[in-house]
Amino acid sequence: MQAEKLAYYPFTSEASAHVGNLGISLESLLNSRAYRAARVRGIERVKEALEGEIKKSPLSGEAQVLSELLSYPFARMLVACVDDQLFTRRYALAEAKSAYAFLRNETPDFLLEFGDDFGISADFQDSYFGMHFTDYIRFSNSLKDPSWKLTNRQLRAGKIKITKEEFARLLEEAIRERIEQSFPIPEIPPEVSSFCAPYVAGIKEQFEVQKKKFGATDFGAVEPELFPPCIAHALANVQGGVNLAHSMRFAMTSFLLNVGMSVDEILNLFNVSPDFDTEKTLYQIEHIAGSTGNAYKPPACDTMRTYGNCVGKDRLCEKISHPLGYYERRVFIKNKEKEQTEGAKQKKNEESGGGEKGNENEIKEKKGNN
Fold this sequence. Notes:
The protein has 370 residues and is mainly alpha-helical. The protein is 62% helix and 4% strand. The chain has helices at 3-8, 13-21, 26-31, 36-50, 62-82, 85-103, 108-117, 133-140, 164-181, 190-212, 229-239, 246-258, 263-270, 278-289, 301-306, 323-351, 356-369, and strands spanning 122-125, 128-132, 155-156, 159-162. The radius of gyration is 28 Å and the shape is flat. The termini are far apart. The model is unreliable at 214-219 and 355-366 (pLDDT under 50).
Protein backbone atom coordinates (compact mmCIF):
# COMPACT_ATOMS: atom_id res chain seq x y z
CA MET A 1 0.00 0.00 0.00
CA GLN A 2 1.36 3.44 -0.89
CA ALA A 3 2.28 5.86 1.92
CA GLU A 4 -0.68 8.11 1.01
CA LYS A 5 -3.08 5.19 1.36
CA LEU A 6 -1.50 4.24 4.69
CA ALA A 7 -2.14 7.78 5.94
CA TYR A 8 -5.85 7.38 5.17
CA TYR A 9 -5.95 4.01 6.94
CA PRO A 10 -3.42 4.38 9.81
CA PHE A 11 -5.00 1.63 11.92
CA THR A 12 -3.98 -1.15 9.51
CA SER A 13 -1.15 -3.55 10.32
CA GLU A 14 0.82 -2.27 7.33
CA ALA A 15 0.55 1.34 8.48
CA SER A 16 1.69 0.39 11.98
CA ALA A 17 4.69 -1.49 10.57
CA HIS A 18 5.53 1.45 8.31
CA VAL A 19 5.56 3.90 11.23
CA GLY A 20 7.74 1.49 13.21
CA ASN A 21 10.23 1.28 10.35
CA LEU A 22 10.58 5.08 10.28
CA GLY A 23 12.55 4.84 13.54
CA ILE A 24 10.97 7.94 15.09
CA SER A 25 11.39 7.92 18.87
CA LEU A 26 8.61 8.80 21.30
CA GLU A 27 10.66 11.74 22.56
CA SER A 28 10.98 13.09 19.00
CA LEU A 29 7.27 12.73 18.25
CA LEU A 30 6.43 14.65 21.42
CA ASN A 31 9.07 17.38 21.30
CA SER A 32 10.74 17.69 17.89
CA ARG A 33 9.81 20.76 15.83
CA ALA A 34 9.92 18.49 12.78
CA TYR A 35 6.75 16.74 13.97
CA ARG A 36 4.85 19.75 15.27
CA ALA A 37 2.41 19.54 12.33
CA ALA A 38 1.69 15.89 13.22
CA ARG A 39 0.91 16.86 16.83
CA VAL A 40 -1.35 19.72 15.74
CA ARG A 41 -3.17 17.39 13.36
CA GLY A 42 -3.48 14.76 16.11
CA ILE A 43 -5.18 17.26 18.43
CA GLU A 44 -7.43 18.36 15.58
CA ARG A 45 -8.23 14.72 14.82
CA VAL A 46 -9.45 14.08 18.37
CA LYS A 47 -11.46 17.29 18.57
CA GLU A 48 -13.12 16.56 15.23
CA ALA A 49 -14.04 13.11 16.55
CA LEU A 50 -16.02 14.84 19.30
CA GLU A 51 -18.12 16.47 16.61
CA GLY A 52 -18.68 13.09 14.96
CA GLU A 53 -16.56 13.45 11.81
CA ILE A 54 -12.80 13.41 11.24
CA LYS A 55 -12.20 15.43 8.08
CA LYS A 56 -9.57 14.16 5.66
CA SER A 57 -8.48 16.28 2.72
CA PRO A 58 -6.42 15.10 -0.27
CA LEU A 59 -2.74 14.85 0.68
CA SER A 60 0.09 16.31 -1.38
CA GLY A 61 3.80 15.94 -0.71
CA GLU A 62 5.76 13.65 1.58
CA ALA A 63 5.69 16.08 4.52
CA GLN A 64 1.88 16.26 4.56
CA VAL A 65 1.54 12.51 4.17
CA LEU A 66 3.97 11.92 7.06
CA SER A 67 2.15 14.41 9.33
CA GLU A 68 -1.21 12.74 8.62
CA LEU A 69 0.26 9.31 9.27
CA LEU A 70 1.95 10.31 12.55
CA SER A 71 -1.09 12.24 13.75
CA TYR A 72 -2.83 8.93 14.42
CA PRO A 73 -0.44 7.57 17.07
CA PHE A 74 -0.38 11.00 18.72
CA ALA A 75 -4.19 11.13 18.69
CA ARG A 76 -4.20 7.70 20.34
CA MET A 77 -1.99 9.05 23.11
CA LEU A 78 -4.51 11.80 23.76
CA VAL A 79 -7.43 9.36 23.81
CA ALA A 80 -5.54 7.05 26.17
CA CYS A 81 -4.86 9.97 28.54
CA VAL A 82 -8.51 11.04 28.50
CA ASP A 83 -9.23 7.48 29.72
CA ASP A 84 -13.01 7.52 29.31
CA GLN A 85 -14.84 4.54 27.81
CA LEU A 86 -17.57 6.64 26.22
CA PHE A 87 -15.02 9.01 24.74
CA THR A 88 -13.00 6.08 23.37
CA ARG A 89 -16.09 4.68 21.65
CA ARG A 90 -16.88 8.07 20.15
CA TYR A 91 -13.35 8.42 18.84
CA ALA A 92 -13.28 4.88 17.38
CA LEU A 93 -16.62 5.47 15.66
CA ALA A 94 -15.45 8.75 14.13
CA GLU A 95 -12.25 7.15 12.81
CA ALA A 96 -14.24 4.27 11.31
CA LYS A 97 -16.80 6.58 9.67
CA SER A 98 -14.02 8.67 8.19
CA ALA A 99 -12.37 5.56 6.73
CA TYR A 100 -15.70 4.35 5.28
CA ALA A 101 -15.97 7.54 3.21
CA PHE A 102 -12.81 6.43 1.39
CA LEU A 103 -13.40 2.66 1.43
CA ARG A 104 -16.65 2.91 -0.50
CA ASN A 105 -14.69 4.35 -3.44
CA GLU A 106 -11.89 1.77 -3.42
CA THR A 107 -11.58 -1.12 -5.91
CA PRO A 108 -12.90 -4.60 -5.01
CA ASP A 109 -9.33 -5.96 -4.96
CA PHE A 110 -8.28 -3.28 -2.49
CA LEU A 111 -11.26 -4.03 -0.25
CA LEU A 112 -10.49 -7.76 -0.25
CA GLU A 113 -6.88 -7.04 0.72
CA PHE A 114 -8.08 -4.60 3.36
CA GLY A 115 -10.48 -7.21 4.75
CA ASP A 116 -7.63 -9.75 4.99
CA ASP A 117 -5.93 -7.48 7.49
CA PHE A 118 -8.96 -7.90 9.75
CA GLY A 119 -9.13 -11.67 9.22
CA ILE A 120 -12.25 -11.38 7.03
CA SER A 121 -12.79 -14.22 4.59
CA ALA A 122 -14.36 -12.91 1.37
CA ASP A 123 -14.24 -13.09 -2.42
CA PHE A 124 -15.61 -11.03 -5.31
CA GLN A 125 -17.60 -12.44 -8.20
CA ASP A 126 -20.24 -11.09 -10.60
CA SER A 127 -20.24 -7.62 -9.03
CA TYR A 128 -20.95 -8.99 -5.54
CA PHE A 129 -18.85 -9.89 -2.52
CA GLY A 130 -19.17 -13.25 -0.84
CA MET A 131 -18.46 -12.98 2.89
CA HIS A 132 -18.26 -15.92 5.28
CA PHE A 133 -21.39 -15.94 7.42
CA THR A 134 -19.44 -15.97 10.72
CA ASP A 135 -17.66 -12.71 9.78
CA TYR A 136 -20.95 -11.29 8.51
CA ILE A 137 -22.73 -12.01 11.78
CA ARG A 138 -19.86 -10.60 13.83
CA PHE A 139 -19.76 -7.23 12.06
CA SER A 140 -23.44 -6.81 11.19
CA ASN A 141 -24.63 -7.61 14.70
CA SER A 142 -24.72 -3.95 15.80
CA LEU A 143 -26.49 -2.73 12.64
CA LYS A 144 -30.18 -2.23 13.33
CA ASP A 145 -31.74 -1.99 9.88
CA PRO A 146 -33.78 -5.19 9.21
CA SER A 147 -32.00 -5.63 5.87
CA TRP A 148 -28.87 -6.71 7.76
CA LYS A 149 -30.61 -9.66 9.43
CA LEU A 150 -29.23 -13.01 8.34
CA THR A 151 -32.73 -14.21 7.44
CA ASN A 152 -32.91 -11.46 4.81
CA ARG A 153 -29.69 -12.57 3.10
CA GLN A 154 -28.69 -15.18 0.52
CA LEU A 155 -26.49 -17.87 2.08
CA ARG A 156 -24.59 -20.18 -0.27
CA ALA A 157 -21.70 -22.46 0.60
CA GLY A 158 -21.33 -20.68 3.94
CA LYS A 159 -21.07 -17.21 2.40
CA ILE A 160 -23.40 -14.19 2.37
CA LYS A 161 -23.91 -12.23 -0.84
CA ILE A 162 -23.44 -8.47 -0.35
CA THR A 163 -22.81 -5.36 -2.45
CA LYS A 164 -19.55 -3.42 -2.53
CA GLU A 165 -21.02 -0.62 -0.42
CA GLU A 166 -22.32 -3.12 2.14
CA PHE A 167 -18.91 -4.76 2.34
CA ALA A 168 -17.31 -1.35 2.94
CA ARG A 169 -19.89 -0.68 5.68
CA LEU A 170 -18.99 -3.93 7.42
CA LEU A 171 -15.30 -3.02 7.14
CA GLU A 172 -16.22 0.19 8.96
CA GLU A 173 -17.53 -1.93 11.83
CA ALA A 174 -14.31 -3.97 11.79
CA ILE A 175 -12.25 -0.77 12.06
CA ARG A 176 -14.37 0.54 14.92
CA GLU A 177 -13.99 -2.73 16.79
CA ARG A 178 -10.20 -2.83 16.30
CA ILE A 179 -9.70 0.71 17.55
CA GLU A 180 -12.02 0.24 20.54
CA GLN A 181 -10.32 -2.97 21.58
CA SER A 182 -6.89 -1.34 21.45
CA PHE A 183 -7.89 0.70 24.53
CA PRO A 184 -7.28 1.17 27.38
CA ILE A 185 -3.50 1.27 27.16
CA PRO A 186 -2.20 -0.47 30.33
CA GLU A 187 0.81 1.73 31.04
CA ILE A 188 1.06 5.26 29.67
CA PRO A 189 4.64 6.58 29.89
CA PRO A 190 4.93 9.51 32.37
CA GLU A 191 6.38 11.78 29.70
CA VAL A 192 3.28 11.18 27.54
CA SER A 193 0.87 11.96 30.39
CA SER A 194 2.80 15.11 31.26
CA PHE A 195 3.00 16.35 27.67
CA CYS A 196 -0.65 15.61 26.87
CA ALA A 197 -2.13 16.98 30.14
CA PRO A 198 -2.89 20.54 28.90
CA TYR A 199 -4.55 19.23 25.73
CA VAL A 200 -6.46 16.51 27.60
CA ALA A 201 -7.99 19.11 29.93
CA GLY A 202 -9.43 21.01 26.96
CA ILE A 203 -10.66 17.83 25.29
CA LYS A 204 -12.45 16.71 28.48
CA GLU A 205 -14.09 20.09 28.82
CA GLN A 206 -15.31 19.97 25.22
CA PHE A 207 -16.56 16.41 25.74
CA GLU A 208 -18.60 17.43 28.80
CA VAL A 209 -20.29 20.10 26.68
CA GLN A 210 -21.06 17.49 24.03
CA LYS A 211 -22.54 15.07 26.57
CA LYS A 212 -24.91 17.75 27.82
CA LYS A 213 -26.23 18.10 24.27
CA PHE A 214 -27.38 14.47 24.37
CA GLY A 215 -30.51 15.55 26.21
CA ALA A 216 -32.20 17.74 23.57
CA THR A 217 -35.00 19.08 25.77
CA ASP A 218 -34.17 20.97 28.97
CA PHE A 219 -36.71 19.98 31.60
CA GLY A 220 -34.42 20.71 34.54
CA ALA A 221 -33.76 17.93 37.04
CA VAL A 222 -35.13 14.58 35.81
CA GLU A 223 -38.24 13.56 37.80
CA PRO A 224 -39.11 9.86 37.19
CA GLU A 225 -42.37 10.12 39.15
CA LEU A 226 -43.68 12.38 36.36
CA PHE A 227 -42.89 9.96 33.51
CA PRO A 228 -45.78 8.79 31.30
CA PRO A 229 -47.21 5.34 32.22
CA CYS A 230 -45.56 3.58 29.25
CA ILE A 231 -42.05 4.77 30.20
CA ALA A 232 -42.61 4.15 33.91
CA HIS A 233 -43.73 0.59 33.10
CA ALA A 234 -40.70 -0.04 30.89
CA LEU A 235 -38.36 1.39 33.52
CA ALA A 236 -39.87 -0.85 36.21
CA ASN A 237 -39.40 -3.89 33.95
CA VAL A 238 -35.77 -3.03 33.26
CA GLN A 239 -35.03 -2.56 36.95
CA GLY A 240 -36.75 -5.87 37.62
CA GLY A 241 -34.43 -7.64 35.17
CA VAL A 242 -37.06 -8.11 32.45
CA ASN A 243 -35.92 -7.93 28.82
CA LEU A 244 -37.68 -5.23 26.80
CA ALA A 245 -38.74 -5.57 23.17
CA HIS A 246 -36.37 -3.66 20.88
CA SER A 247 -39.04 -1.05 20.05
CA MET A 248 -39.71 -0.37 23.75
CA ARG A 249 -36.01 -0.27 24.59
CA PHE A 250 -35.52 2.36 21.88
CA ALA A 251 -38.55 4.36 23.07
CA MET A 252 -37.40 4.35 26.70
CA THR A 253 -33.76 5.17 25.89
CA SER A 254 -34.58 8.04 23.54
CA PHE A 255 -37.10 9.40 26.07
CA LEU A 256 -34.60 9.35 28.94
CA LEU A 257 -31.94 11.05 26.80
CA ASN A 258 -34.35 13.78 25.78
CA VAL A 259 -35.41 14.58 29.34
CA GLY A 260 -31.80 15.04 30.40
CA MET A 261 -30.37 11.72 31.58
CA SER A 262 -26.77 11.03 30.58
CA VAL A 263 -25.55 8.08 28.54
CA ASP A 264 -23.77 6.64 31.59
CA GLU A 265 -26.88 6.95 33.78
CA ILE A 266 -28.97 5.05 31.24
CA LEU A 267 -26.26 2.42 30.84
CA ASN A 268 -26.44 1.79 34.60
CA LEU A 269 -30.19 1.22 34.34
CA PHE A 270 -29.70 -1.63 31.89
CA ASN A 271 -26.96 -3.46 33.78
CA VAL A 272 -29.46 -5.72 35.58
CA SER A 273 -30.91 -7.10 32.33
CA PRO A 274 -30.30 -10.86 31.78
CA ASP A 275 -28.76 -10.24 28.36
CA PHE A 276 -26.76 -7.18 29.40
CA ASP A 277 -23.71 -6.52 27.25
CA THR A 278 -21.83 -3.35 28.23
CA GLU A 279 -20.18 -2.75 24.87
CA LYS A 280 -23.27 -3.35 22.77
CA THR A 281 -25.61 -1.42 25.08
CA LEU A 282 -23.28 1.56 25.28
CA TYR A 283 -22.98 1.63 21.49
CA GLN A 284 -26.78 1.56 21.09
CA ILE A 285 -27.37 4.30 23.66
CA GLU A 286 -24.69 6.54 22.18
CA HIS A 287 -26.10 5.98 18.69
CA ILE A 288 -29.59 7.06 19.84
CA ALA A 289 -27.99 10.02 21.64
CA GLY A 290 -26.57 11.29 18.37
CA SER A 291 -23.00 10.02 18.12
CA THR A 292 -23.46 9.61 14.36
CA GLY A 293 -24.83 13.14 13.98
CA ASN A 294 -28.54 12.31 14.27
CA ALA A 295 -30.06 12.35 17.77
CA TYR A 296 -33.38 10.52 18.02
CA LYS A 297 -36.67 11.55 19.59
CA PRO A 298 -38.92 8.90 21.15
CA PRO A 299 -41.86 7.64 19.05
CA ALA A 300 -45.22 9.42 19.22
CA CYS A 301 -48.14 7.83 21.10
CA ASP A 302 -49.69 6.48 17.89
CA THR A 303 -46.49 4.61 17.10
CA MET A 304 -46.28 3.34 20.68
CA ARG A 305 -49.79 1.93 20.31
CA THR A 306 -48.92 0.32 16.97
CA TYR A 307 -46.07 -1.63 18.57
CA GLY A 308 -48.11 -2.55 21.64
CA ASN A 309 -46.04 -0.31 23.93
CA CYS A 310 -48.87 1.93 25.17
CA VAL A 311 -49.33 0.59 28.70
CA GLY A 312 -51.32 1.97 31.66
CA LYS A 313 -52.95 4.83 29.79
CA ASP A 314 -54.35 7.49 32.16
CA ARG A 315 -56.62 10.55 31.82
CA LEU A 316 -53.78 12.89 30.84
CA CYS A 317 -52.79 10.50 28.04
CA GLU A 318 -56.14 11.26 26.37
CA LYS A 319 -55.00 14.86 25.84
CA ILE A 320 -51.40 14.12 24.82
CA SER A 321 -49.95 12.83 21.54
CA HIS A 322 -46.31 12.31 22.57
CA PRO A 323 -44.51 10.90 25.66
CA LEU A 324 -42.34 14.02 25.89
CA GLY A 325 -45.48 16.16 25.78
CA TYR A 326 -46.87 14.13 28.71
CA TYR A 327 -43.76 14.69 30.79
CA GLU A 328 -43.56 18.38 29.91
CA ARG A 329 -47.20 18.81 30.93
CA ARG A 330 -46.67 17.00 34.25
CA VAL A 331 -43.63 19.17 35.01
CA PHE A 332 -45.65 22.29 34.18
CA ILE A 333 -48.53 21.19 36.45
CA LYS A 334 -46.16 20.38 39.31
CA ASN A 335 -44.39 23.74 39.05
CA LYS A 336 -47.72 25.54 38.87
CA GLU A 337 -48.99 23.77 41.99
CA LYS A 338 -45.73 24.59 43.75
CA GLU A 339 -46.10 28.28 42.87
CA GLN A 340 -49.69 28.28 44.11
CA THR A 341 -48.71 26.59 47.39
CA GLU A 342 -45.87 29.04 48.00
CA GLY A 343 -48.14 31.94 47.08
CA ALA A 344 -50.78 30.76 49.55
CA LYS A 345 -48.17 30.46 52.33
CA GLN A 346 -46.86 33.94 51.60
CA LYS A 347 -50.37 35.37 51.64
CA LYS A 348 -51.11 33.64 54.94
CA ASN A 349 -47.93 35.07 56.47
CA GLU A 350 -48.83 38.56 55.27
CA GLU A 351 -52.34 38.25 56.69
CA SER A 352 -50.94 37.11 60.04
CA GLY A 353 -48.66 40.11 60.33
CA GLY A 354 -45.83 39.37 57.98
CA GLY A 355 -44.07 36.55 59.81
CA GLU A 356 -41.23 37.59 62.10
CA LYS A 357 -41.76 41.29 61.41
CA GLY A 358 -45.40 40.94 62.38
CA ASN A 359 -44.42 39.21 65.60
CA GLU A 360 -41.97 42.04 66.44
CA ASN A 361 -44.72 44.64 65.94
CA GLU A 362 -47.06 42.61 68.09
CA ILE A 363 -44.48 42.49 70.91
CA LYS A 364 -43.91 46.27 70.68
CA GLU A 365 -47.66 46.90 70.88
CA LYS A 366 -47.95 44.72 74.02
CA LYS A 367 -45.02 46.60 75.67
CA GLY A 368 -46.64 49.93 74.83
CA ASN A 369 -49.91 48.85 76.38
CA ASN A 370 -48.09 47.78 79.51
